[in-house]
Amino acid sequence: MSKIAGKRLVYFPNIPFILYRGLNLPPNFAAFRVPLNVNKFDVRDYLLHVYNLKTLSVKTNIYQGSLYRNEYGQVRRQAATKRAIVEMEEPFIYPEVPKDLRQWRAGDSLPDGTSAKTLTRYPLYLEKPNMKVVNEELDKLQEASVSKSQQKISRLLRSIH
């Protein structure tokens, strides 16, 4: 007998699931940070429908934020976090951390040869279009569409008479 993970369909997920290495888990386990309002069934449905990942079990824990004093001396608490530990059917092995990170620093080139600086920054100014040329091109397009519509009308009038 096969198990159905859930009936909720997830089309465009807007829930942030953050995979992290924080624990020494076996290869068939993964740890996620999830929002507080997500339950075990939602985790299972999300992983199944978005990533086609079949899970055997889901364990969730809520961790309270630590206390601190702000600049006015008031006692505050950081936001609580929720962790989900998922047991998967297939093992997942993290890729190794690269030894040399100079390639990914801003200004250096990425592994495919593109520059990280050009990908992260917009140009300071955009080239202003020549409005005279743009208006001339629009007039040409409008004249062409008007002439086509006039030809269609004249054909219709000829077919009527």
Automatic annotation (TrEMBL):
GO BP terms, alphabetized: mitochondrial translation
Keyword Transcription regulation carried by entry: no
UniProt keyword list: Ribonucleoprotein, Ribosomal protein
SUPFAM superfamilies: Ribosomal proteins S24e, L23 and L15e (SSF54189)
Entry GO terms, CC: mitochondrial large ribosomal subunit
Coiled coil: none
Any one GO molecular function term: structural constituent of ribosome
Key word NADP present: no
Family named by the database record: Belongs to the universal ribosomal protein uL23 family.
Protein name listed in UniProt: Large ribosomal subunit protein uL23m
Organism: Schizosaccharomyces cryophilus (strain OY26 / ATCC MYA-4695 / CBS 11777 / NBRC 106824 / NRRL Y48691) (Fission yeast)
Organism classification: Eukaryota, Fungi, Dikarya, Ascomycota, Taphrinomycotina
